[in-house]
Amino acid sequence: MTEYTPGPLDRDATVYVAGHRGLVGSAIWRHLDEQGFSRLVGRSSAELDLRDRDAVFGFFADTRPRYVVLAAAKVGGILANCTYPVDFLSENLQIQTNVLDAALQHEVERVLFLGSSCIYPKLAPQPIKEEYLLTGHLEPTNDAYAIAKIAGILHVQAVRRQYGLPWISAMPTNLYGSGDNFSREDSHVLPALIRRYDQARRTGAPSVTNWGSGTPRREFLHVDDMAAACLHLLEHFDGPTQVNVGTGQDLTIRDLAALVADAVGYDGETHWDTSKPDGTPRKLLDVSQLTASGWEPQVPLAEGVARTVAWYRSHGESIRQ
Ligand SMILES: NC(=O)C1=CN([C@@H]2O[C@H](COP(=O)(O)OP(=O)(O)OC[C@H]3O[C@@H](n4cnc5c(N)ncnc54)[C@H](OP(=O)(O)O)[C@@H]3O)[C@@H](O)[C@H]2O)C=CC1
Ligand SMILES: C[C@H]1O[C@H](OP(=O)(O)OP(=O)(O)OC[C@H]2O[C@@H](n3cnc4c(=O)[nH]c(N)nc43)[C@H](O)[C@@H]2O)[C@@H](O)[C@@H](O)C1=O
């Protein structure tokens, strides 16, 4: 492909944010709006089911976006991934294949595909560099989701090779923030802990029980930082390799639980249910490629958790169950 030099995106161009009502897509929408993008386009899954190939091609023909951020996906925490592997594999393959194929037909100038840090081998050396992709076995609790995401990375690379379009992929670490999924069974750990500890505080429960052993380590990035990183990559990065997006710092789930208990003001006991899966022992991303391009996260974990607790409390009934 001919060399592409990234630079500022055209603020008047049509930008399609797929998944604009989700945790990540809504933050990207807010950030692009704040940064002066005047033609943002989004559709809910009820308005446009991205598994419907004809509908996706019709939507692209109607709206003709110049840039696309693909933040629509079947997403969930460790238990949802274990319980519904067919959905995580099949729906994600359908969503991303339809959107990327339609974007190719319309020669969309820049596409940002979002994967996840679970694409890397379960026992990858830490911190995990981009080059460790496909060097070992995946974590079984989310291998179906990971395979779909790896297919997305390869899809983007193949478009670059065959058609020369400067599309890119980003691999975020575990994300959290306003608009997260706080459901009891399907959520990720941070919203689950906020809900559980806040409820225990309100009801005066003497103890809470979290999943697993509490020993796995995870890295958490606030979704507002994620949104800023997405625009930064679109304006400053081009290359075939997926780019890790994270903070470069992790902590144990046990320490995270203590932080959340403190943030919500709960002082009871914490127990651990080891019949629930731990997942991968550690997945700390090496973010040197991203930081070398001039980007750094702005939201410290304690502040981000406090902001998310406030959002959770102020949204009460409207949160996802
Ligand atoms: N949350 C996290 O910790 C992480 C997320 N990511 C990645 O970020 C991206 C966004 O995740 P996140 O925001 O957390 O997920 P959410 O579940 O919050 O949002 C997913 C979005 O996808 C849309 N969507 C799902 N299925 C369809 C469909 N069939 N047709 C149309 N739209 C659909 C939903 O639309 P609607 O609301 O209208 O139903 C929703 O807006 C994903 O690619 C995910 O892999 C990566 C690493 C960590
Ligand atoms: C983003 C990422 O998210 C998933 O991977 P994960 O990091 O393992 O996800 P998680 O947030 O669900 O759990 C992290 C840790 O936390 C522990 N844990 C304690 N108590 C609760 C709890 O109440 N809920 C949950 N969900 N976890 C809990 C849990 O046992 C585990 O040890 C993948 O689906 C993968 O697809 C992916 O990309």
What is the gyration radius calculated from CA atoms?
19 Å
From the 3D structure, determine the CATH topology of the domain at 14-180 and 219-249 and 284-299: Rossmann fold
Q: Give me the side-by-side strand order of the main sheet.
A: 2-1-3-4-5-10
For CATH, the homologous superfamily of the domain at 14-180 and 219-249 and 284-299 is named as: NAD(P)-binding Rossmann-like Domain
**What would the average pLDDT be, to the nearest integer?**
97
Beginning-to-end CA distance, first to last residue: 46 Å
Bound molecules: NADPH dihydro-nicotinamide-adenine-dinucleotide phosphate, ligand F7E
CATH architecture of the domain at 14-180 and 219-249 and 284-299: 3-Layer(aba) Sandwich
Describe this structure in words.
This is GDP-L-fucose synthase. It catalyses: GDP-beta-L-fucose + NADP(+) = GDP-4-dehydro-alpha-D-rhamnose + NADPH + H(+). Residues 15-246 form the NAD-dependent epimerase/dehydratase domain. Helices cover 41% and strands 14% of the residues. The chain has helices at residues 23-34, 53-63, 78-83, 85-105, 143-163, 189-203, 223-236, 253-264, 288-292, 301-315, and strands at 14-18, 39-41, 67-70, 110-114, 168-172, 174-176, 207-211, 217-218, 220-222, 243-245, 251-252, 269-273. The mean pLDDT is 97. The strands form 4 sheets. Strands 2-1-3-4-5-10 form a 6-stranded parallel β-sheet, with helices on both faces. A two-stranded parallel sheet has the order 6-9. Strands 7-12 form a two-stranded parallel ribbon. α2 (53-63) packs parallel to α4 (85-105) and α6 (189-203) crosses α10. The chain has a domain at 14-180 and 219-249 and 284-299: NAD(P)-binding Rossmann-like Domain (Rossmann fold), CATH 3.40.50. The chain is of the alpha/beta class and 321 residues long. β4, α5 (143-163) and β5 (168-172) form a beta-alpha-beta unit. The chain binds NADPH dihydro-nicotinamide-adenine-dinucleotide phosphate and ligand F7E. The ligand C[C@H]1O[C@H](OP(=O)(O)OP(=O)(O)OC[C@H]2O[C@@H](n3cnc4c(=O)[nH]c(N)nc43)[C@H](O)[C@@H]2O)[C@@H](O)[C@@H](O)C1=O binds next to α3, α6 and β7.
